[in-house]
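Hey, quick one: can you model this chain's 3D structure?
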Amino acid sequence: MRTARTECADRLLITGERHLRTVLTTYAEHYNAGRAHRSLDLRAPDDDPNVIPLPAATVRRRQVLGGLLNEYHTMSLRLPHQRRRTPSSAT
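Sure thing. Here's the predicted structure for all 91 residues.
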């Protein structure tokens, strides 16, 4: 509860019960699936422990709760198109 309050609820003006439920639901999803935890070697609780993350060339940021929170996801490495060499008939 303390983490949800300090990272989320203390920084927003909650306008009613429906708004509070929406904010807390969104934060819980972020906390369990998108937030890095030091005690879990910077993994989220819902991450598969059998998957070893590989370094990627591109990291994308996704804003949660209007930019109050940020989640970072790696994108697959895109290799540039290589030109195919065609045999030269002039040799």
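One thing worth noting: The longest strand covers residues 58-64.
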